[in-house]
Amino acid sequence: MIDRLLRAWCRLTENLMALLMLAMVVLVFGNVVMRYAFDGGITISEELSRWFFVWMTFLGAAVGIYERAHLGTDMLLSRLKPGGRRALVTLSLLMMVGVTAVMLKGAWAQMQINLDVEAPVTGASMAWVYGAGVLFAAIALLLLVRELLLTVTGRISDAEIGQMRESEDLAQVDELHLDRSETFRKH
């Protein structure tokens, strides 16, 4: 049930990120056209584009945590026995939970400080910018605690422990091989 909700949340978030990207493209491209063709511009386009980029980045980072898509290295992890891997991943997750909790506290404080600060162009509260950090940290904290609990209780198999991607290139190669092997198995 929770996995289904998380997958739905990821799809919804990815769609929101696509809309934010589309809005950024329209705003920036529209501003360029307005400047060169009509010697004017869309005043709020730069400010909104920056805000959309911040939100898109933080939302994408949260999805990356759920999908275990962040890059890492397993130089030490791959040399350990399953029990050692589980212990090291548990320690790593505990540190990530701690750092994320500090980030949540700091982002919340920044959001509160900036509630009455107005953005230069739109006049909107600058708390909206820091709200991205609050939302990310809250979601990341929940996802990391979930991952920690799954790891500690043994509901993640030894093969799944510490799964990470060494590089984006290798991840794409792995996905390509996986797709091809599934195609061959079907035939």
UniProtKB/TrEMBL annotation:
Domain of life: Bacteria
UniProt domain Tripartite ATP-independent periplasmic transporters DctQ component: residue ranges: 24-151
Ranges annotated as spanning the membrane: 12-36, 48-66, 87-108, 128-145
Entry annotated with the keyword Transcription: no
Purpose of the protein: Part of the tripartite ATP-independent periplasmic (TRAP) transport system.
Family, as annotated: Belongs to the TRAP transporter small permease family.
Subunit annotation: The complex comprises the extracytoplasmic solute receptor protein and the two transmembrane proteins.
The protein, known as: TRAP transporter small permease protein
Species in which this protein is naturally found: Pseudaquabacterium rugosum
